[in-house]
Amino acid sequence: MYEVQVLKALVLGEEERGQSQYQVMCFVTKFQKGDFITADAMAKLRQKNPSTIRTPEEDKGKENYTMTGWVVLDRAAPISRHIAPLCSEAPDSTYARDVDLKAWAELPELLKETQKESWEDILQESEGEFLIESQEEFLKESQVEVPKES
Predict the structure, then answer these.
(1) pTM
(2) Structural domain span for residue 96
(3) Which of 25, 26, 97, 109 could form a disulfide with 78 if both were Cys (CB 3.0 to 4.6 A apart)?
């Protein structure tokens, strides 16, 4: 299993503007295992001193992500088996970063399907103008899709 973070957002519509009641969006990213605090660890901290207000030891600031790719839910199982059920209400609005899509394309399960050893092997097979098209086609065939540039 790979370190994947899924953020499910429910955006309420404005009825007076004729918008639907709500829209569901999912955002899928890779994350570092060391940045994750388990529920067990949090529960133990709460049990020791339940009235203590905890603050972080260091401020890591904010991170902004630009998510220009999207994940096809029915083919996302090699990334995480939790994506499809969590994002079932967002089949056309489950987004990911390009860098994460490329990293997931390196997963052994996906490479086995294409019979290639690495992402670089896919790129070396392409020539000149077909490079971007080949990357997009590889990602499309390997569980994830990247939107075409307009």
Answers:
(1) 0.61
(2) 4-50+63-145
(3) 109
